[in-house]
Write a structure and sequence with these properties.
Chain lengths: 519, 519
């Protein structure tokens, strides 16, 4: 007995309406970052606030409630009518979509409605004002300006999370679940334990190796115009379809999508040629994900990445596994040299590849190289966890932050701006978000390892057949959107559950080789 | 007894929500014209369709209905309680806003709900498909491809208008009222009669004068980069505030506004320097209107121009009365010459001013000069009226069009593409829209005549004090948004009702002088 199609069609129509409102907000956000005039902000925020109210009303409204209940009931009885507990993956696609659509809609509805409206509004005001306080504190490099606000945000955030806390869940796990539902906290503990045990000593080995990698030629005289030319060339090369996408400029690079025929990404140009270059390759990875989502899923709740971490796995894969490999540059490095003859004319491909993989422990996460990046995340994970478990106080945060940087990376911030105040996330109430970055890299490594067993990635890249590599990602990951969760995707793609050792192995092999460190 | 504020506040909140959805559609439309990738169109249309459904639901919904009824009732009893029939303009601003807000909301609601939903959807499909048919017909210059569709559109359009037809109204008057409510059809008949009687023979005189005005130096070698520089300079000069606005590029120049802190305009660059230049000045006039709307009105139904024609009056005023006057160029022509020394270095200000005012009867409305423009509109008015009154058949339209061009402008289109197929409007079902263009010019002339009695426009322009001229417009027109209708604005600003003779006088004086024709 299949779910009556009319009820389901009604639900999907209502969800698409909600999606249209959400996508409109995404367009406004994009416009805000790439085009809007300086003084538009306040009134446009009011406008977005009202749109988000409209979204809330559709998702939290009675119509949605009734449709979801009906659909769910029918799906229940359908399930009971089946002989065995056949898994979702065995059902046909359309049935699976229905089940997942209802699940995601329920989750979204719960997320919106579990918090009393007034509290949510108060919280929104708090975090909205916090942005300015944080910016001021960072500018003056004075943590004491931001600390009281941060304390309030944390208390509020904990209260909000408590509304959705289930038996046996910690508050932090609730927060983590907002970004990567399929990973319980103990899985993340394990993951970061491995990173701590393996990568901190490995980084020490590299430092001890004393090998210097020159990257000075990546800076200086790279005109914005030529960098733009390079950006377009590289975006096209990795498969970004300019008929279905836009590349623009914003203060901080990001990717957004309105549907699978309109995916936007930005970059930012500065003195270092590799900054914009790898921004484009990284955001290009996000963009390929969004462009690859199945037509059947786009403009629905399932028409987005499986999770933050899975999305990040795709950007990191394209940026690091592909984009920072020598093989990737074989077919195109000549063109890059022609664009910048003065800077790169005498730089060999080997030297260029080494330069774009240079390891250098630094204080700023967003400037970190591939190897040390995960340590920046690990520190934030440890701190967020300790804050939520009340094992440290906000007042001590600046010092603990500095201690951890000294312990793991061997460098100590001289001030709060290059330490605890560097990231905007906490001022926005984003706790539990950071781990996605590291998890994404680890997913990427696991996928990469398995992919190499199936196709000869290096040879394909050398032959300029990068499309066959990204097609693999589309086939196994992108097209499914949110139809599966991250762990299901990993299992279906690599044949096993998440295994963080691939990540450590990948990093050690790559950087052991580059720095002549035996592993 | 004033209207209870809570009910009114509720109404305004609901209206602002509707406005946010409408503004979101405007952002998407802007993005679509200036940034969106080629293949986005279809899915984005679906999205916009859903948003327009949301807008419909808010405006046509029960909540809105109840609030409007309550507000209206209270306003009624308030009116009855007043001693005399004191006019809206005598009430204080806030009370006036309330009254006008309810009026406009009712009108918008009626406009949305008077047509049965299915019919409206069918009509939308028809006009949406018609765009392609029209484009194909124009491309092949074959009216017979488009004629059957146009016939269907006209029949449908008449049917839709009939739902709102009041006693004694013609169908065409209903259509005209959608764009300029304060002008009944007989007023427009009078207006175009005067144009026909006065300007057609005047144009003949000019042609007979045999005076040739050279404008060849406005074409050739104007690089897009330099034109862009000029566009920004001129936009700034006329008072376009780049902190509250954006200038971009699109196929056809237009202006849009999300609120009075974010007004966007576009231009289009080609071989002729004056094309983009006067696009920017024209759109700049629209933009100044939107930027000048009072803070209290922005983001509400009253936060827009009083009517299409009044909006056009402001763009035409800035473009023609100001922008094509010699005085305007006195303080800045030197800078323009410096930007284009090769093209304009040896062109005197007098020659330049003559060139940008060159009269040349042509077949294409959008390329028309200031004098002949109104004749293009008059022809369309006559044809629309005759079509709606069933005095001509669609089948005969191509020939009648050509006959009229021959009669009034002395030139005959050689094919349908440069004749009846040149404008997109009818394919979109826009009947009654064209007259706004001519009416706007006539408003502008009347305002100009009166303004000159109050301030010395020419001297101010020569001294570079253009701000004092545009401030006058802001003070008398812009800030009121839709608080008053066009005729009220004309009366309040110029002390008399609409008087088309100012327009004829203005044109005859200006062009009589330029071409040495006595009037």
């Amino acid at each position: 007995m299949a779910l009556k199609n009319e009820t389901y069609t009604e639900l999907e129509t209502l969800l698409k309406k909600a999606y249209a409102v959400q996508a409109a907000m995404a367009v406004i956000e994009w416009d805000n970052e790439t085009a809007a005039p300086k003084e538009a902000g306040e009134l446009t925020s009011e406008m977005v606030g009202r749109l988000s109210g409209v979204y809330y009303e559709i998702m939290a409204g009675d119509d949605m409630g009734k449709l979801l209940k009906t659909c769910e009931k029918k799906q229940e009885s359908q399930k009971n009518g089946q002989k065995d507990g056949s898994k979702a993956s065995e059902k046909n696609m359309e049935e699976l979509i229905k089940v997942r659509m209802v699940e995601e809609a329920k989750k979204e509805r719960e997320l919106l409605t579990c918090v009393p409206q007034e509290e949510f509004e108060e919280y929104t005001k708090l975090t909205s004002a916090a942005g300015k306080t944080w910016a001021k504190a960072k500018e003056q490099s004075d943590f004491s300006i931001f600390a009281p606000t941060l304390k309030k945000i944390i208390d509020f955030r904990k209260k909000l999370a408590s509304y959705r806390q289930k038996d046996g869940q910690t508050i932090y796990e609730v927060m983590l679940g907002e970004f990567e539902e399929s990973f319980p906290e103990n899985k993340l503990d394990e993951f970061f334990d491995i990173i701590r045990k393996e990568l901190v000593p490995f980084l020490d080995e590299i430092k001890k190796s004393g090998k210097a990698v020159d990257n000075s030629f990546l800076k200086g005289g790279y005109s914005e115009e030529k960098q733009r030319e390079l950006a377009v060339m590289i975006a096209e090369y990795i498969g970004f379809d300019f008929d279905r996408g836009v590349l623009s400029v914003s203060a901080h690079p990001f990717t957004t999508s309105f549907h699978n025929k309109d995916v936007r990404m930005t970059t930012h140009y500065d003195d270092w040629a590799d900054h914009s270059l790898f921004s484009v390759i990284h955001e290009g990875g996000h963009a390929l994900y969004e462009l690859g989502i199945d037509d059947r899923l786009t403009q629905t709740l399932l028409g987005q990445g499986a999770s933050m971490a899975m999305h990040e796995s795709q950007s990191r894969f394209v940026e690091n596994m592909i984009g920072r490999s020598e093989a990737f540059w074989v077919p195109i490095y000549g063109k890059v040299q022609k664009l910048f003859p003065k800077q790169l004319g005498n730089v060999s491909l080997k030297e260029f590849t080494a330069a774009i993989n240079r390891v250098e422990p630094g204080l700023i996460r967003t400037n970190a190289d591939e190897l040390t990046y995960s340590l920046h995340i690990m520190i934030r994970y440890e701190l967020e966890k300790a804050l939520m478990e009340e094992k440290i106080e906000v007042e001590d945060l600046e010092k603990v932050w500095a201690d951890k940087y000294e312990e793991y990376l061997g460098i100590r911030p001289e001030n709060a701006a290059e330490g605890v105040l560097q990231d905007i996330h906490w001022s926005q109430g984003s706790f539990g978000y950071f781990p996605s970055y590291a998890l994404g890299s680890a997913f990427a490594a696991q996928i990469y390892e398995h992919m190499k067993e199936e196709i000869d990635v290096d040879s394909l890249l050398k032959e300029g057949k990068i499309g066959e590599v990204t097609d693999y990602l589309k086939e196994h990951i992108h097209r499914f959107g949110r139809l599966k969760d991250s762990r299901q995707i990993l299992r279906d793609t690599t044949g096993e559950d998440f295994n963080p050792h691939y990540y450590v192995k990948y990093l050690k092999e790559k950087y052991g080789k580059l720095y002549g460190v035996s592993i």
